[in-house]
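Technical annex, item 7. During the second reporting period the consortium partners agreed on a shared format for inverse folding records so that results from different sites could be compared directly. Each record opens with the tokenized structure and is followed by the designed sequence. A conforming record, contributed by the partner at site C, is shown below for reference.
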């Protein structure tokens, strides 16, 4: 009995390999350009970072409804640095210059084990605490916890721990739903 084996020979296989390499290179260049663009956008804000990560001096009175004053920057309190969530904000909210910043969104992320797979690997869910700060008054306007998605129900045995999605969309939706006030 003859056995037919599938082999990758000729121009078809070489073409697929070249296409794969080109796609990989293009993706790498795109990621590098995107990262550099974000780093350049943050340069004017760097001298103000300590002010953005500082704790609020007071808490808004109980009946104060949260609002967005001017434009927004987003910082990660654990890393004491800007958070990528900033680049998910719509142009109408995202500060392009430090003089536009009236609101600071301070985030603290953590993960919570929500399950264990048969392999013993853990399944994690992201929990993100968001603190909304009126920078001009040093006032904590709101604190809210956003819960990310559950990890996948099943996964490959050797792929390690699994994570659900971060609640980025939920946070941006909340921020865009808040009333805005001018810095004037």
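Designed sequence (site C submission):
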């Amino acid at each position: 009995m003859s056995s037919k084996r599938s082999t990758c020979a000729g121009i078809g296989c070489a073409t697929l390999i070249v296409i794969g390499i080109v796609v990989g290179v293009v993706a790498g260049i795109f990621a590098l350009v995107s990262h550099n663009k974000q780093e350049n956008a943050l340069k004017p804000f760097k001298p103000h970072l300590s002010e953005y990560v500082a704790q609020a001096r007071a808490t808004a009175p109980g009946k104060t409804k949260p609002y967005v004053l001017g434009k927004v920057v987003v910082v990660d309190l654990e890393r004491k640095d800007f958070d990528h969530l900033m680049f998910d904000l719509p142009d109408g909210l995202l500060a392009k210059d430090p003089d536009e910043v009236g609101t600071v969104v301070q985030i603290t992320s953590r993960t919570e084990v929500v399950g264990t797979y048969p392999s013993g690997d853990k399944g994690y869910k992201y929990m993100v605490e968001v603190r909304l700060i009126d920078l001009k008054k040093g006032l904590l306007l709101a604190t809210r916890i956003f819960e990310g998605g559950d990890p996948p129900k099943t996964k490959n045995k050797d792929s390690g721990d699994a994570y659900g999605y971060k609640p980025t969309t939920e946070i941006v939706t909340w921020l865009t739903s808040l009333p805005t006030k001018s810095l004037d």
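Residues 47-181 form a domain with the Rossmann fold fold (CATH 3.40.50). The helical segments are 11-42, 49-53, 168-177. All partners now use this format for quarterly exchanges.
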